[in-house]
User: Fold these one by one.
Assistant:
Number 1:
Amino acid sequence: MLTAIVGINWGDEGKGRMVDLLSESYDVICRYQGGNNAGHTVVNDKGRFILNLLPSGILREEIVNVMGGGMVIDLEHLCGEIGALETKGVSVTPENLKISHNAFICLPCHKAQDILEEERLGDKKYGSTRRGIAPAYGDKYMKKGLRMGDLLEAWRLKQKLYEMLEWKNLTLRGYNASLADSSEILRWLYEYGARLAPFISDTTVYLADAIRTGKNIMFEAQLGALRDIDYGIYPYTTSSHTLAAFAPIGAGIPAAKIERVIGVIKAYSSCVGEGPFTAELFGEEADALREAGAEYGAATGRPRRVGGFDVPASRYGVQIQGASELALTKLDVLSYMDKIPVCVAYEIEGAKSGGFPTGDKLLRAKPVYEYLPGFKTDISHCRRSQELPEAALDYIRFIENAMECPIKYVSVGPGRDEYLTMN
Ligand code: GDP
């Protein structure tokens, strides 16, 4: 079985916990895009873990984790993440972690460039996490840079780096910034490269074999549909493909067909960074929701913007992800509400529409809010749908109907067992 778990919204839907939960019946978990610009939070019996780069399956001993060629990897960050897991007793070995030789390296000069550009933009900044992801992907497509496999060929690494920096420094000069120092970066590459070298291989061979021998593979995405570089809210997107359709390519098995796409969808909206966020709530209503949902970035600690469930944006997300089923997360967060705000449509220049607008029309969209009855009960102990109050079931049915996609799982707390399967 090949399954993708993807975000329907802006990210932070709780994909990490769903992968952690469902990974039990999978042999291989594969991350296929992005870098350390977002984080999955997983809470289990070993503690609370924030994973920016490592696939969430790393927390289960028997699972093999693959970091695919579609990723960009900050070596220092990855070494730190592995180290943090090891101190909590999670072992990371070449047997349970395999890094594609095709994955692109996010260098310190990419991070520097990201910061310089955000500062140059000032008020018009994109809200980058400043971790170098956009410059790294940009360079990848300019075909200037290093890949993980280069770390295994140290004699060519130096020459490749010099050639790349010659070009990169043209850009840094334009910012009047200090130039990238090749010997410093080379030291960085040697130090962290030596630690990661045992994990690097041609993962396409491993995955092809895994498919041939009937292994169950789960593809794990970072961020959500609305952040996809091509189909998201451009330019307030990430720099990679967050869609399930990209999973086989980013993972390294382009011909594979994903059979099951689980869309993770949050019971309300949240968004990190800049850009249109039509359903956004403000003031006390927003503060209460942010606090109830602990909406602060896992990678950056930044407070997230919050809003009610956004029907037009989520319908678009479900469609563009090709979700075959949904996992509705964080329903418990709404327990404090007397009435639950839902953005049921957008109003653009006086016309009401349930569709998701393209281009600059989205900038002019205003939310049309309706309120559904609150359930005002602690639901975190519910483990069967029959135990949920009627108002909570009505809310679930409302979303299911609006999305035209079955809700298979509902999570009612961050812990591994705090969820229920709908029947
Ligand atoms: P991801 O990137 O999609 O994995 O999402 P994040 O990890 O950034 O955000 C999800 C956050 O919500 C984490 O802190 C989770 O522990 C928490 N979380 C996930 N599911 C639930 C839930 O059902 N209820 C509550 N209260 N928190 C949840």
Number 2:
Amino acid sequence: MADEQKECIFCQIVEGKIPAIKIYEDERSLAFADINPLADGHTLVIPKTHTETLWEITPGDLAAVHQACQKVARGMKEALKAPGITVIQLNGAAANQVVMHYHVHLVPRDRGKDKLKVLEWEAKPGNMRTIEKLAKKITEAI
Ligand code: AMP
Ligand code: ZN
């Protein structure tokens, strides 16, 4: 096992070496409570296999993790009566990813009650020429 995996806290959670409050698991994915919740019920969903980012995760793990996200989201809606759920997924230190093991944040939301301004932003119209130019550049790279 690579050193980065040995030191990865989420791999250690998968292996049962450090505790976590588990919410759901299947063969490929695990959901557990975030210990610094942005809101009540904040949950993380991860692949059991170590991988860092959206551009590295295998299609199979990606599908499994996001299907697990849907199960957890449905559970949150029912159990917490969450009117909304925000999904956050950070990739790379430049995007403020702190734990370098792919994870999806599911944050139950009740806008107006929870005051989580960090999850809201003001819409400012962009420059359409720049938007089109960058969109074309990305498309050409796919
Ligand atoms: P980020 O990498 O910025 O997307 O976020 C990492 C998240 O992992 C943070 O929200 C932390 O609160 C959470 N976290 C870190 N260590 C643990 C742990 N041992 N158990 C549960 N959540 C954790
Ligand atoms: Zn890991």
